Amino acid sequence: MKNSQLINILEDWRIRINDINHIKFSKLCRKTQAKNGWFTEESIRMAFRDINRFLDPEKLINWINGNSTPHKNSKEVGIIMAGNIPMVGFHDLLCVMATGHSAQIKLSSQDDVLLPYIFNLLFDIAPEFSERIRFVNKLEFPQAIIATGSNNSARYFEYYFSSVPHIIRKNRTSVGILSGNESKEDLLGLGQDILQYFGLGCRNISKLLVPEKYDFKMFYEVIEPLKSVILQHKYANNYTYNRSILLIDKIPFIDNGFLLIRENSQLVSPISVVFYETYKSDKAIDIFLGQNKESIQCVVAGGAYEPESIPFGSTQSPELWDYADNVNTLEFLFGLHHN
To answer: Fewest CB atoms within 10 A around its CB: which of 73, 81, 179, 258?
Structure first.
């Protein structure tokens, strides 16, 4: 299939997805929430927003970048998807489609409603894809693997799929760097980077680096519009539990009623909590980022702290070319044609 044909099909698919009416969407949300209480209607809408952006024809043209999608030597790629945020594995599957391979998808039991639904819309437009994309309970002799999971499951994946080309992803999180000169818009964006999807994604910020004696008062004032997060019962339970533990253990923390902030050297914080460390110099920041490079997905900072940093408020708006673990999935899959 030529790239132009593929992009036309994807554009038609994008229209079909955007045309899902309110009644069908509400029913889809209820069915999804029955499997996973973290998946609110707002979270699902955010995930659909990301898919709409991924399927933008102009972006697809730039992304595929003139590469052909040869029919010869195509492979059966197994994709093991996570279930932490809605349809988090969509990008991997889109990469397989863009490179002319076939896919076996092992969905998480926490997110096994949305992707089959939207792919049935694709199969109605282009039935040939129903032969190349299969949702399975068990992978059957895949020739390559893309697997996302915890650090523990990653060790199992590395062992089990060692004989085939693979991308194995482990736990990651994101870091925010503050200078003290951020605007209110920056701070609101930071709040969104922390709280969107309730902090469950690898692109959510769980750790802040701040100057010594940094005052979080303005940050708390600015993110007040995000307080509705506490209305989600699972998030509220985490907040109540973590606050109780901090009080019992007499650990200093600050609190605005829906987000706890405490000083801690660890990188990954619990849901409803953000850890922070202070720094004295840019060199200290560089050392921290270097030591934790393999565990960081995004670095958020004002201006252009470093080539890899992105603006506040953008962690949950990845582009097609923003790859998980900074491993170019498209390049990996194109390379399979030569194996």
So the answer is: 73
How does pLDDT run along the chain (339 residues), one tens digit per residue? Answer: 678 889 999 999 999 999 999 999 999 999 999 999 999 999 999 999 999 999 999 999 989 875 555 557 889 999 999 999 999 999 999 999 999 999 999 999 999 999 999 999 999 999 999 999 999 999 999 999 999 988 889 899 999 999 999 999 999 999 999 999 999 999 999 999 999 999 999 999 999 999 999 999 999 999 999 999 999 999 999 999 999 999 999 999 999 999 999 999 999 999 999 999 999 998 999 999 999 999 999 999 986 566 678 999 999 999 999 999 889 999 999 998 887
- 154 contacts 169 by C-beta, under 8 angstroms: yes
3-state secondary structure of 151: helix
Residue 221, amino acid: E
pTM over 0.90: yes
Helices (H), the chain: 3-18, 22-35, 41-54, 57-64, 90-98, 114-125, 151-160, 184-195, 217-222, 233-248, 282-291, 329-336
* Distance of alpha carbon 152 from alpha carbon 136, whole angstroms: 23
- Judging by DSSP bridges, how do beta strands 296-301 and 173-177 pair with one another? parallel
Instruction: Write down all domains in the chain, each with its CATH number in brackets.
Output: 3-171 (3.40.605.10), 173-301 (3.40.309.10)
